[in-house]
Write a structure and sequence with these properties.
Blueprint: H1 3-9, H2 12-15, E1 30-31, E2 37-40, E3 43-47, H3 60-73, H4 89-102, E4 106-110, H5 113-124, E5 130-134, H6 139-146, E6 152-155, H7 160-177, E7 181-186, H8 198-203, E8 211-215, H9 230-234, E9 242-246, E10 256-260, H10 262-268, H11 273-276, H12 283-298, H13 300-319, E11 332-337, H14 340-353, E12 356-357, E13 359-361, E14 370-375, H15 383-401, E15 408-409, E16 412-413
Parallel strand pairs: 3-12, 5-6, 5-7, 7-8, 8-9
Antiparallel strand pairs: 1-2, 2-3, 4-10, 9-10, 11-14, 13-14, 15-16
Helix pairs in contact: 3-12, 4-12, 5-6, 13-15
Bound molecules: pyridoxal-5'-phosphate.
Length: about 425
């Protein structure tokens, strides 16, 4: 069969439902400056779906630093991979400052978080080693694990007694092969907002020999006293062997970094394939990130504002009887009951009639009958934004309960007209 024909015939789980879409649920276009109020299909909507946790995306000092750096260096400089011709003193400056901020002795920049994670896993483990990872880990971890030629064991999300079982299995193997064990979890899980049980995992280091890698994409900047992340929050910075975070969330930029022992980084930097065979971060991005980190350190009130909004929103939702799952972070899921059509209708109602823009997932991303509406608060939202949103959720909760979103058409449920 021709590959292009095969592709048309098998469009994948999301591609196969693209016919019901009109840049509404998938590839929507939010326009205007990055802020709580943006434009969507010609209307102003209250956005709760951007990981701009600390509100840095549109901070005047950030915009100025980005623009000045781009004017001075363009977007190309430096050309080439870091190892060849793409290195500058500012790349080193940023990684040193990041490492210091998260309480680790050394840091290493990554030109994208996703590819970085893939390569960290790929470089750390070989055929004789075993990976043990949390079942709810992000796609970049799953894809990194897929590259692994040796054994891998998954434990149910945050189930520490099961993790112990998997470690026992892993240990049996490594005793034979002479390999090592890598445990991988997230600091903050991006869908549920739950934190990885870092304390529970670290406790197991007393019984087993393993290295711990934490993907703290959503925890960096939002968790811990200084915003240094989930390891800081739980007081286990020293026990996390590889700390990773992206710049795509609290830093409102692009790229990422890992922080660890300098002896380890000194080997990894020669072996991360997605970095040594790819162009380094442009200087405009590096300088923009230096400014963002400076602001995060200088303005703890950004994180305080974020949590003021988070607390008001989460306690308001709980008070009206809504289920926000196990979140312990700014990520706020609202767990509702309904099928994928109801989820689609609910989203349309929220966006078109109530001007609230957030994202939702239904089966097969979450179990059948469950809809999760994910709300991402930021430091630049206001308590009035929260009030407005809570009122709307009170209404949609009743509508969902009354079956308003179950509109029967000729071929079963159909989407609401807007
Ligand atoms: C948990 C987690 N890890 C890694 C990534 C990938 O980071 P990046 O967007 O920098 O590629 C993301 C998404 O941004 C994420 O949510």
């Amino acid at each position: 069969m021709d590959l292009f024909e095969k592709l048309q015939a098998n469009r994948g789980p999301l591609g196969s439902i693209s016919h019901i879409d009109d840049n509404y649920y998938m590839f929507p276009m939010l326009e205007g400056e990055i802020a709580p109020r943006m434009q969507f299909k010609g209307k102003t909507v209250l956005t709760w779906s951007l990981n701009n946790y600390l509100g840095l995306a549109n901070h005047p000092e950030v915009r100025k630093a980005d623009a000045e750096a781009a004017e001075k260096y363009g977007l190309g400089y430096p050309m080439g991979a870091r190892m060849m011709t793409g290195n500058t003193k500012y790349h080193h400056q940023l990684e040193n400052e990041l490492a210091e901020f998260v309480g680790k002795p050394a840091g290493l920049l990554l030109n994208y978080g996703y590819q970085g994670v893939l390569s960290i896993i790929d470089a750390l483990v070989g055929r004789k080693d075993v990976i043990v990872y949390d079942a709810e880990c992000h796609a970049c971890i799953i894809d990194g694990v897929r590259l692994h030629m040796g054994k891998r064991f998954v434990y149910p999300h945050n189930d520490i007694s099961n993790l112990e079982l998997q470690l026992k299995r892993a240990e049996k193997i490594t005793k034979e092969t002479g390999g090592g064990i890598l445990v991988i979890t997230e600091g903050v899980f991006g869908m549920s907002g739950n934190t990885g049980d870092l304390k529970g995992i670290v406790e197991l280091k007393k019984k087993f020999d393993f290295r711990l890698m934490v993907d703290d994409a959503h925890g960096f900047g939002t968790m811990g006293k200084n915003g240094a992340g989930t390891a800081e929050h739980y007081g286990v910075t020293d026990e996390v062997d590889i700390y990773f975070a992206t710049f795509a969330k609290s830093m409102a930029s692009i790229g990422g970094f890992l922080a660890s022992d300098p002896k380890v980084l000194d080997v990894l930097k020669y072996n991360l394939r997605s970095q040594i065979f790819a162009k380094s971060l442009p200087l405009a991005i590096v300088l923009g990130n230096i400014k963002r980190l400076e602001l995060i350190k200088k303005h703890p009130e950004f994180k305080d504002n974020l949590w003021k909004i988070v607390n008001a929103l989460q306690s308001g939702l709980k008070e009206m009887g809504l289920n926000i799952g196990t979140t312990k972070s700014p990520v706020t899921p609202v767990v509702l009951s309904g099928d994928p059509f109801e989820a689609a209708n609910l989203m349309k109602d929220l966006r078109s009639n109530y001007n609230i823009f957030c994202s939702a997932v239904a089966y097969p991303v979450v179990p059948k009958g469950t809809i999760i509406v994910r709300i991402i608060p930021t430091a630049v939202h206001t308590l009035d934004d929260v009030k407005e949103t809570l009122k709307v959720f009170e209404t949609i909760k009743e509508k969902l309960h009354d079956g308003v979103y179950l509109k029967e058409g000729e071929k079963g449920a159909t989407l609401l007209e807007t």
